[in-house]
Amino acid sequence: MQYNPLGDTGLSVSELGFGTWAIGGDWGKNNDEESLKGLQKAMDAGVNFFDTADVYGSGHSEELLAKATKGKEDSIHIATKFIRLGDINDPANYSEDQIRTYVENSLRRLQRETIDLYQIHCAPLDMLKNTDIFPILEKLKKEGKIRSYGVSVESDEEGLFVLENTNASALQVIFNVLRQKPLKELFPKAQEKGVGILARVPLASGLLTGKFSKDHQFESDDHRNFNKDGGAFNVGETFGGIPFEKGVELSREVSWIGDERDSITRAALKWVMQQEAVTSVIPGFKNVKQVEDNLKSLEVKNFSAEELKKLETFYWENVHAHIRGPY
Protein backbone atom coordinates (compact mmCIF):
# COMPACT_ATOMS: atom_id res chain seq x y z
CA MET A 1 0.00 0.00 0.00
CA GLN A 2 1.26 3.44 -0.91
CA TYR A 3 0.37 6.43 1.28
CA ASN A 4 0.01 9.95 -0.06
CA PRO A 5 -0.12 13.35 1.65
CA LEU A 6 -3.69 14.69 1.72
CA GLY A 7 -3.19 18.30 0.70
CA ASP A 8 -1.94 20.42 3.59
CA THR A 9 -3.77 18.40 6.27
CA GLY A 10 -0.62 16.69 7.57
CA LEU A 11 -2.36 13.35 7.04
CA SER A 12 -0.90 10.54 4.98
CA VAL A 13 -3.68 8.41 3.50
CA SER A 14 -3.78 5.11 1.64
CA GLU A 15 -3.89 5.38 -2.15
CA LEU A 16 -6.87 3.02 -1.98
CA GLY A 17 -9.54 4.11 0.47
CA PHE A 18 -13.18 3.13 0.62
CA GLY A 19 -16.43 5.02 0.34
CA THR A 20 -19.37 4.04 2.54
CA TRP A 21 -22.43 5.20 0.62
CA ALA A 22 -23.30 1.62 -0.33
CA ILE A 23 -23.24 0.34 3.26
CA GLY A 24 -25.28 3.32 4.43
CA GLY A 25 -28.14 3.05 1.96
CA ASP A 26 -29.50 3.66 -1.55
CA TRP A 27 -27.71 0.65 -3.06
CA GLY A 28 -30.26 -2.07 -2.35
CA LYS A 29 -30.23 -4.49 0.60
CA ASN A 30 -27.47 -4.18 3.21
CA ASN A 31 -26.13 -6.39 5.98
CA ASP A 32 -24.40 -4.49 8.79
CA GLU A 33 -22.40 -7.51 9.96
CA GLU A 34 -21.02 -7.97 6.46
CA SER A 35 -20.32 -4.25 6.21
CA LEU A 36 -18.29 -4.30 9.44
CA LYS A 37 -16.35 -7.34 8.25
CA GLY A 38 -15.57 -5.50 5.03
CA LEU A 39 -14.30 -2.46 6.92
CA GLN A 40 -12.10 -4.69 9.08
CA LYS A 41 -10.72 -6.51 6.02
CA ALA A 42 -9.77 -3.17 4.48
CA MET A 43 -8.02 -1.95 7.62
CA ASP A 44 -6.16 -5.24 7.99
CA ALA A 45 -4.80 -4.68 4.47
CA GLY A 46 -3.48 -1.21 5.34
CA VAL A 47 -6.39 1.00 4.29
CA ASN A 48 -6.42 3.99 6.65
CA PHE A 49 -8.90 6.29 4.91
CA PHE A 50 -12.69 6.09 4.65
CA ASP A 51 -15.17 8.54 3.17
CA THR A 52 -18.74 8.92 4.42
CA ALA A 53 -21.54 11.50 4.76
CA ASP A 54 -24.29 12.39 7.20
CA VAL A 55 -26.86 11.68 4.50
CA TYR A 56 -25.72 8.08 3.88
CA GLY A 57 -28.51 6.16 5.57
CA SER A 58 -29.23 9.29 7.64
CA GLY A 59 -25.95 8.81 9.49
CA HIS A 60 -25.91 5.01 9.50
CA SER A 61 -22.60 4.73 7.66
CA GLU A 62 -21.01 7.13 10.16
CA GLU A 63 -22.23 4.89 13.00
CA LEU A 64 -20.80 1.80 11.31
CA LEU A 65 -17.44 3.54 10.94
CA ALA A 66 -17.51 4.46 14.64
CA LYS A 67 -17.90 0.77 15.53
CA ALA A 68 -15.24 -0.39 13.09
CA THR A 69 -12.62 2.19 14.07
CA LYS A 70 -13.14 2.35 17.85
CA GLY A 71 -9.73 2.69 19.49
CA LYS A 72 -8.09 3.50 16.14
CA GLU A 73 -9.06 7.15 15.93
CA ASP A 74 -5.43 8.29 15.59
CA SER A 75 -4.52 5.85 12.81
CA ILE A 76 -7.72 5.53 10.76
CA HIS A 77 -8.75 8.76 9.07
CA ILE A 78 -12.36 9.59 8.29
CA ALA A 79 -13.74 12.17 5.90
CA THR A 80 -17.42 12.97 6.20
CA LYS A 81 -19.70 15.38 4.37
CA PHE A 82 -22.57 17.70 5.20
CA ILE A 83 -25.25 20.07 3.84
CA ARG A 84 -27.56 17.64 1.99
CA LEU A 85 -29.71 16.75 4.99
CA GLY A 86 -31.26 20.17 4.41
CA ASP A 87 -32.34 22.14 1.36
CA ILE A 88 -29.12 22.74 -0.59
CA ASN A 89 -30.70 25.75 -2.32
CA ASP A 90 -31.78 27.52 0.90
CA PRO A 91 -29.26 30.03 2.29
CA ALA A 92 -30.57 29.27 5.81
CA ASN A 93 -29.09 25.78 5.47
CA TYR A 94 -25.65 27.42 5.36
CA SER A 95 -25.99 29.41 8.59
CA GLU A 96 -23.43 28.96 11.34
CA ASP A 97 -26.01 27.48 13.70
CA GLN A 98 -27.09 24.91 11.13
CA ILE A 99 -23.54 23.92 10.20
CA ARG A 100 -22.65 23.58 13.88
CA THR A 101 -25.63 21.25 14.26
CA TYR A 102 -24.39 19.16 11.34
CA VAL A 103 -20.84 18.91 12.69
CA GLU A 104 -21.91 18.06 16.23
CA ASN A 105 -24.26 15.33 14.99
CA SER A 106 -21.52 13.79 12.85
CA LEU A 107 -19.04 13.93 15.75
CA ARG A 108 -21.58 12.16 17.94
CA ARG A 109 -22.26 9.43 15.41
CA LEU A 110 -18.57 8.97 14.64
CA GLN A 111 -17.75 9.02 18.37
CA ARG A 112 -14.81 11.31 17.74
CA GLU A 113 -13.67 14.65 19.07
CA THR A 114 -12.39 15.90 15.71
CA ILE A 115 -13.34 15.20 12.10
CA ASP A 116 -10.25 14.65 9.97
CA LEU A 117 -11.74 16.08 6.77
CA TYR A 118 -15.11 17.84 6.74
CA GLN A 119 -16.47 18.23 3.21
CA ILE A 120 -19.22 20.38 1.76
CA HIS A 121 -21.44 17.83 0.01
CA CYS A 122 -22.08 18.98 -3.56
CA ALA A 123 -23.55 22.38 -2.81
CA PRO A 124 -24.62 24.53 -5.78
CA LEU A 125 -22.00 26.96 -7.03
CA ASP A 126 -24.04 30.01 -6.06
CA MET A 127 -24.20 28.76 -2.46
CA LEU A 128 -20.43 28.26 -2.41
CA LYS A 129 -20.02 31.80 -3.70
CA ASN A 130 -22.70 33.68 -1.80
CA THR A 131 -22.80 32.25 1.73
CA ASP A 132 -20.34 32.38 4.65
CA ILE A 133 -19.72 28.65 4.57
CA PHE A 134 -15.94 28.90 4.19
CA PRO A 135 -15.39 31.40 7.05
CA ILE A 136 -17.56 29.14 9.22
CA LEU A 137 -15.39 26.14 8.35
CA GLU A 138 -12.28 28.15 9.18
CA LYS A 139 -13.80 28.90 12.57
CA LEU A 140 -14.58 25.20 13.20
CA LYS A 141 -11.00 24.37 12.24
CA LYS A 142 -9.59 26.88 14.75
CA GLU A 143 -11.86 25.43 17.43
CA GLY A 144 -10.59 21.90 16.75
CA LYS A 145 -13.96 20.52 15.69
CA ILE A 146 -12.44 19.68 12.32
CA ARG A 147 -8.83 19.12 11.33
CA SER A 148 -9.35 20.34 7.78
CA TYR A 149 -12.07 20.89 5.22
CA GLY A 150 -12.72 20.11 1.59
CA VAL A 151 -15.45 20.22 -1.04
CA SER A 152 -17.15 17.42 -2.93
CA VAL A 153 -18.00 18.90 -6.33
CA GLU A 154 -20.14 17.91 -9.30
CA SER A 155 -18.33 19.94 -11.96
CA ASP A 156 -14.90 21.22 -12.92
CA GLU A 157 -16.30 24.76 -12.72
CA GLU A 158 -17.14 24.26 -9.04
CA GLY A 159 -13.75 22.69 -8.38
CA LEU A 160 -11.86 25.53 -10.04
CA PHE A 161 -13.81 28.09 -7.98
CA VAL A 162 -12.84 26.28 -4.79
CA LEU A 163 -9.18 26.10 -5.82
CA GLU A 164 -9.00 29.75 -6.74
CA ASN A 165 -11.02 31.28 -3.89
CA THR A 166 -10.74 29.14 -0.74
CA ASN A 167 -8.27 27.38 1.55
CA ALA A 168 -9.84 23.95 1.08
CA SER A 169 -7.39 21.09 1.59
CA ALA A 170 -9.09 18.61 -0.73
CA LEU A 171 -11.50 18.22 -3.61
CA GLN A 172 -13.64 15.14 -4.11
CA VAL A 173 -14.53 14.55 -7.76
CA ILE A 174 -16.25 12.04 -10.02
CA PHE A 175 -13.39 10.45 -11.94
CA ASN A 176 -12.92 7.19 -13.81
CA VAL A 177 -11.94 5.70 -17.16
CA LEU A 178 -15.30 6.88 -18.53
CA ARG A 179 -15.08 10.34 -16.90
CA GLN A 180 -11.66 11.84 -17.66
CA LYS A 181 -12.33 15.56 -18.06
CA PRO A 182 -10.71 16.57 -14.71
CA LEU A 183 -7.31 15.57 -16.14
CA LYS A 184 -7.46 18.49 -18.56
CA GLU A 185 -7.56 21.52 -16.24
CA LEU A 186 -8.82 20.74 -12.74
CA PHE A 187 -6.14 18.26 -11.68
CA PRO A 188 -3.16 20.35 -12.85
CA LYS A 189 -4.57 23.34 -10.96
CA ALA A 190 -5.07 21.22 -7.82
CA GLN A 191 -1.45 20.03 -8.03
CA GLU A 192 -0.28 23.60 -8.47
CA LYS A 193 -2.21 24.62 -5.34
CA GLY A 194 -1.17 21.55 -3.30
CA VAL A 195 -4.78 20.41 -2.88
CA GLY A 196 -5.59 16.72 -2.44
CA ILE A 197 -7.85 14.85 -4.86
CA LEU A 198 -10.29 12.14 -3.78
CA ALA A 199 -11.67 10.17 -6.72
CA ARG A 200 -15.23 8.96 -6.28
CA VAL A 201 -17.43 6.79 -8.57
CA PRO A 202 -14.20 5.14 -9.85
CA LEU A 203 -16.10 2.14 -11.21
CA ALA A 204 -18.89 4.25 -12.75
CA SER A 205 -21.46 2.81 -10.31
CA GLY A 206 -20.52 -0.71 -11.35
CA LEU A 207 -20.31 -0.23 -15.13
CA LEU A 208 -16.55 -0.83 -14.91
CA THR A 209 -17.01 -4.22 -13.29
CA GLY A 210 -18.27 -5.64 -16.59
CA LYS A 211 -21.02 -7.60 -14.86
CA PHE A 212 -24.12 -5.85 -16.23
CA SER A 213 -26.14 -6.47 -19.37
CA LYS A 214 -28.31 -3.76 -20.92
CA ASP A 215 -31.49 -5.36 -19.54
CA HIS A 216 -30.26 -5.54 -15.93
CA GLN A 217 -32.87 -4.46 -13.38
CA PHE A 218 -31.75 -2.78 -10.15
CA GLU A 219 -33.69 -2.92 -6.90
CA SER A 220 -36.23 -0.16 -6.34
CA ASP A 221 -34.23 1.32 -3.43
CA ASP A 222 -30.99 1.36 -5.44
CA HIS A 223 -30.06 4.81 -6.82
CA ARG A 224 -29.03 3.08 -10.04
CA ASN A 225 -32.76 2.56 -10.51
CA PHE A 226 -34.36 5.72 -9.14
CA ASN A 227 -31.61 8.17 -10.17
CA LYS A 228 -30.48 6.69 -13.47
CA ASP A 229 -31.73 9.83 -15.25
CA GLY A 230 -31.11 12.28 -12.39
CA GLY A 231 -34.57 12.09 -10.86
CA ALA A 232 -33.37 12.30 -7.25
CA PHE A 233 -30.04 14.15 -7.38
CA ASN A 234 -27.25 15.01 -9.82
CA VAL A 235 -27.23 12.51 -12.67
CA GLY A 236 -23.42 12.40 -12.61
CA GLU A 237 -23.47 10.45 -9.33
CA THR A 238 -25.07 7.50 -11.14
CA PHE A 239 -22.98 5.80 -13.84
CA GLY A 240 -20.92 8.99 -14.06
CA GLY A 241 -23.77 10.64 -15.95
CA ILE A 242 -23.80 8.16 -18.83
CA PRO A 243 -27.12 6.56 -19.81
CA PHE A 244 -27.04 2.99 -18.47
CA GLU A 245 -27.44 1.14 -21.75
CA LYS A 246 -24.76 3.28 -23.42
CA GLY A 247 -22.53 2.80 -20.39
CA VAL A 248 -22.76 -0.97 -20.69
CA GLU A 249 -21.74 -0.68 -24.33
CA LEU A 250 -18.81 1.63 -23.57
CA SER A 251 -17.60 -0.53 -20.68
CA ARG A 252 -17.39 -3.47 -23.06
CA GLU A 253 -15.31 -1.40 -25.46
CA VAL A 254 -12.72 -0.74 -22.73
CA SER A 255 -12.82 -4.26 -21.27
CA TRP A 256 -9.41 -4.90 -22.84
CA ILE A 257 -7.83 -3.05 -19.91
CA GLY A 258 -8.48 -6.11 -17.76
CA ASP A 259 -6.85 -8.62 -20.10
CA GLU A 260 -3.48 -8.50 -18.34
CA ARG A 261 -4.76 -7.18 -15.01
CA ASP A 262 -7.04 -9.99 -13.80
CA SER A 263 -10.30 -8.04 -14.29
CA ILE A 264 -11.71 -4.78 -15.60
CA THR A 265 -12.52 -3.78 -12.00
CA ARG A 266 -8.93 -4.03 -10.81
CA ALA A 267 -7.66 -2.38 -13.98
CA ALA A 268 -10.09 0.54 -13.64
CA LEU A 269 -8.99 1.21 -10.05
CA LYS A 270 -5.31 0.92 -10.98
CA TRP A 271 -5.83 3.48 -13.76
CA VAL A 272 -7.23 5.98 -11.24
CA MET A 273 -4.45 5.36 -8.71
CA GLN A 274 -1.87 5.83 -11.44
CA GLN A 275 -2.95 9.43 -12.06
CA GLU A 276 -0.39 11.64 -10.34
CA ALA A 277 -2.87 14.17 -8.96
CA VAL A 278 -5.07 11.58 -7.23
CA THR A 279 -4.46 11.26 -3.49
CA SER A 280 -6.87 8.39 -2.85
CA VAL A 281 -9.50 6.49 -4.82
CA ILE A 282 -12.62 5.59 -2.84
CA PRO A 283 -14.65 2.74 -4.37
CA GLY A 284 -17.71 1.57 -2.49
CA PHE A 285 -18.43 -1.94 -1.25
CA LYS A 286 -21.23 -4.00 0.26
CA ASN A 287 -19.41 -7.16 1.31
CA VAL A 288 -16.01 -8.65 2.11
CA LYS A 289 -15.62 -10.14 -1.37
CA GLN A 290 -15.89 -6.71 -2.99
CA VAL A 291 -13.31 -5.31 -0.56
CA GLU A 292 -10.94 -8.17 -1.37
CA ASP A 293 -11.45 -7.72 -5.09
CA ASN A 294 -10.76 -3.99 -4.91
CA LEU A 295 -7.63 -4.58 -2.80
CA LYS A 296 -6.22 -6.76 -5.56
CA SER A 297 -6.04 -3.68 -7.78
CA LEU A 298 -2.92 -2.77 -5.82
CA GLU A 299 -1.13 -5.78 -7.26
CA VAL A 300 -1.83 -5.43 -10.98
CA LYS A 301 0.58 -3.79 -13.38
CA ASN A 302 0.56 -0.12 -14.31
CA PHE A 303 -0.69 1.13 -17.65
CA SER A 304 1.91 1.93 -20.29
CA ALA A 305 2.13 5.36 -21.88
CA GLU A 306 0.60 3.89 -25.03
CA GLU A 307 -2.33 2.42 -23.11
CA LEU A 308 -2.95 5.69 -21.29
CA LYS A 309 -3.00 7.57 -24.60
CA LYS A 310 -5.37 5.01 -26.11
CA LEU A 311 -7.81 5.46 -23.21
CA GLU A 312 -7.55 9.24 -23.39
CA THR A 313 -8.35 9.22 -27.11
CA PHE A 314 -11.22 6.78 -26.60
CA TYR A 315 -12.72 9.00 -23.90
CA TRP A 316 -12.71 12.22 -25.92
CA GLU A 317 -13.83 10.58 -29.17
CA ASN A 318 -16.39 8.08 -27.86
CA VAL A 319 -17.49 8.89 -24.30
CA HIS A 320 -17.42 12.58 -23.43
CA ALA A 321 -20.39 13.60 -25.56
CA HIS A 322 -22.65 11.11 -23.74
CA ILE A 323 -22.12 12.52 -20.23
CA ARG A 324 -25.14 14.38 -18.83
CA GLY A 325 -25.37 17.01 -16.11
CA PRO A 326 -22.74 19.55 -15.03
CA TYR A 327 -19.25 18.08 -15.33
From TrEMBL:
Q: Which residues form the signal peptide?
A: none
The NADP-dependent oxidoreductase domain covers 15-313
Note the InterPro entries from the entry.
AKR, AKR2_Oxidoreductase, NAD(P)_OxRdtase_dom_sf, NADP_OxRdtase_dom
- This chain's protein is named Aldo/keto reductase
Gene source species: Alkalibacterium iburiense
